[in-house]
């Protein structure tokens, strides 16, 4: 696989993983033992790991866009997204494994007061500040990439828009209902798949053979030559 298609695969897989994160995670009142059982479940860990991998794949995808399309703003976008992922992942790691331990202990001891530790972690000033900063940087990086995609002319102008909107809404969606959160995951999946499709399609146009009048196969010269050059 060439760079364009590897990049497309990263965006597609990342988007789908964000949908799995929102759809597969258990939802319950997290001030109760039912909520503790949800946090202690394997599906809780699996869902949050899916989101963590999604952050990594989208960040790598932006680097791939730089390698495929060039563009002076795509490398800074990739760096900003990497910084954002780096700041976000420690918090997600604690959500994945730390909260699972707290939930399991609360269920085992039938002690609902242990769940207070969850909010003590989540809203600790240092933890929540680093987490919020990471998500903001990720959103900025994806928006920068979407703007550069629009300017490049190699892909459809709005190819990066749905993914950019999804990342811009990452913090607000935490305050939504389960249905809103699953819809947010669907938006990220649609954004990742749309961008992946456009990259794959543009790469195919840049390298597909065409018949000349004499029947000889030649490469199609298109406006997506930058994509073809990344092979």
TrEMBL record:
Origin: domain of life: Bacteria
Segments passing through the bilayer: 44-67, 74-92, 123-146, 158-176, 182-200
Keyword annotations of the record: Membrane, Transmembrane, Transmembrane helix
Protein name in UniProt: DUF4386 domain-containing protein
UniProt organism field: Streptosporangium sandarakinum
């Amino acid at each position: 696989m060439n760079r364009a298609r590897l990049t497309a695969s990263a965006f597609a897989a990342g988007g789908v993983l964000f949908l799995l994160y929102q759809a597969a995670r258990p939802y319950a009142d997290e001030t109760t033992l039912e909520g503790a059982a949800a946090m202690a479940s394997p599906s809780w860990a699996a869902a949050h790991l899916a989101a963590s991998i999604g952050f990594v794949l989208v960040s790598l995808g932006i680097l791939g866009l730089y390698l495929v399309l060039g563009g002076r703003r795509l490398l800074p976008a990739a760096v900003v997204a990497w910084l954002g992922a780096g700041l976000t992942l420690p918090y997600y790691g604690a959500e994945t494994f730390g909260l699972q331990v707290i939930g399991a202990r609360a269920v085992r001891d039938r002690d609902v007061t242990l769940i207070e530790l969850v909010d003590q972690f989540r809203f600790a000033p240092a933890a929540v500040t680093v987490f919020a900063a990471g998500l903001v940087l990720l959103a900025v990086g994806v928006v920068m990439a979407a703007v550069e995609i629009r300017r490049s002319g190699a892909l459809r102008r709005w190819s990066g828009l749905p993914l950019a909107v999804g990342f811009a809404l990452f913090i607000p969606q935490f305050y939504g209902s389960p249905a809103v959160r699953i819809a947010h995951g669907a938006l990220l999946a649609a954004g990742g798949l749309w961008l992946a499709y456009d990259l794959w399609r543009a790469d195919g146009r840049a390298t597909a053979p065409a018949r000349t009048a004499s029947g000889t196969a030649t490469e199609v010269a298109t406006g997506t030559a930058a994509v073809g050059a990344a092979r």
